[in-house]
Specification:
Helix content is about 30%, strand content about 15%. The protein is α/β, with parallel strands linked by helices. The chain has a single domain, classed as 3-Layer(aba) Sandwich (Aminopeptidase), CATH 3.40.630.40. A seven-stranded mixed sheet has the order 1-3-2-4-7-5-6. Strands 8-9 form a two-stranded antiparallel ribbon. Helix 6 (about 190-200) links the parallel strand 5 and strand 6 (about 205-210). Helix 6 runs antiparallel to helix 8. Residues about 1-5 have low confidence and may be disordered.
C-alpha cells in the first residue's frame, strides 16, 4: 500500500478491508490526498504534508495480509479533516497545544493557509459533514458488524509522528507510545497483555499513557463494558523510516517493528 498522491481523480474517502477476526485497525492519518482547491490555498510547506502518519499501512502490511483483521484506511490528508479529533472542538489534552478537527497550523506552528485564504467556521462545518462524519459512520458500522458476529470488538488506532515536535512535547519521543486513555478504553487484562509484549522487547523504547494517551477514536469507541476495547499506538517515525524532508519507506528498517506489530495484534485475541 503506497501513499496516495494529490493528482488525478479524487479517491474514495477511505478504503475498507474485511477480515474474519474481531479486530479493527483504524488508519485515520496516513492519507496524503489533497484536493487541488485546497492545495491552491495552502502554503508551500503545508503542501508537503509534514504531519502525515507516513507509511503506517505499509508498516502493518503483515497484519493486514496475514492476520485476517478488518481495517479502515483514510485516503485524504489530516489537513483536510482530522478524523482523530472531536468534531465539537473540545480539547483532548486541556492546557496543551494540539491540532484541531480542521488544522490551521502544522505541528511546527507554521500557517497551513496562505494569507487571505484562511479557513472559515462555515467551511469547517462543511468539512466535518463531508469528510469526518463518513469515516466515523463507517467505523461505527464496522464495530457493530464485528460485535454482531463475534460478541466483541477490538479497535486498534494506528499512528506515527516525527520523533521531535517541540511544540507538542519535550525532547525525543519514545518509539512506541501505547495509549489507553489512562486504562479506561480497554480492560485491564488486555492492556497488561499488550503492554507486557511491548515492555518485554529490547529493540524499541516505549511508554504507556505518556504524552499520547489516545485520541478521539480511542476515547470515543473504547467501551469495555459493552465489549468494545480500544487502544492507540503512536510510533516515533525513526523506528521504521528516515525522518527526512522527502519521506521514504525503509522496508529493511521497518521489518523488526512490523514483526512486533503482528505479534501485538495477534495478542489482542
Amino acid at each position: 500500500m503506497s501513499a496516495l498522491g494529490s493528482l488525478g481523480a479524487s479517491p474514495a474517502l477511505f478504503a475498507t478491508q474485511r477480515g474474519a477476526l474481531p479486530i479493527l485497525i483504524s488508519f485515520p492519518h496516513s492519507g496524503t490526498y489533497l484536493p487541488e482547491v485546497l492545495r491552491e490555498r495552502f502554503t508551500a510547506d503545508a503542501c508537503e504534508l509534514p504531519d502525515t502518519d507516513w507509511f503506517v499501512p505499509e508498516l502493518y502490511h503483515g497484519c493486514l495480509e496475514r492476520l485476517g483483521v478488518n481495517a479502515l484506511i483514510a485516503s485524504h490528508s489530516r489537513y483536510v479533516a482530522d478524523l482523530n479529533r472531536p468534531a465539537d472542538g473540545s480539547p483532548l489534552y486541556p492546557g496543551q497545544i494540539e491540532s484541531t478537527v480542521c488544522p490551521t497550523e502544522t505541528f511546527a506552528g507554521a500557517a497551513i493557509y496562505r494569507a487571505g485564504l484562511e479557513l472559515s467556521a462555515a467551511e469547517t462545518r462543511q468539512r466535518i459533514d463531508r469528510y469526518w462524519r463518513p469515516y466515523h459512520d463507517a467505523l461505527a458500522a464496522l464495530r457493530d458488524e464485528i460485535l454482531a458476529t463475534h460478541g466483541r470488538c477490538l479497535i486498534w488506532d494506528a499512528h506515527s509522528i516525527r520523533s521531535q515536535a517541540p511544540l507538542l512535547f519535550d525532547g525525543l519521543l519514545p518509539e512506541l507510545n501505547l495509549g489507553t486513555w489512562n486504562r479506561r478504553s480497554a480492560e485491564a487484562a488486555l492492556i497488561d497483555r499488550v503492554a507486557g509484549l511491548i515492555g518485554a522487547q529490547q529493540h524499541f523504547s516505549h511508554v504507556v499513557d505518556g504524552r499520547f494517551k489516545g485520541g478521539y477514536i480511542t476515547r470515543h469507541y473504547g467501551a469495555p463494558a459493552q465489549r468494545v476495547q480500544a487502544m492507540q499506538l503512536e510510533i516515533a517515525q525513526r523506528a521504521y523510516m528516515s525522518e527526512a524532508d522527502t519521506p521514504q519507506f525503509d522496508a529493511q528498517r521497518a521489518a523488526p517493528l512490523g514483526a512486533l506489530l503482528e505479534q501485538i495484534i495477534a495478542a489482542l485475541l
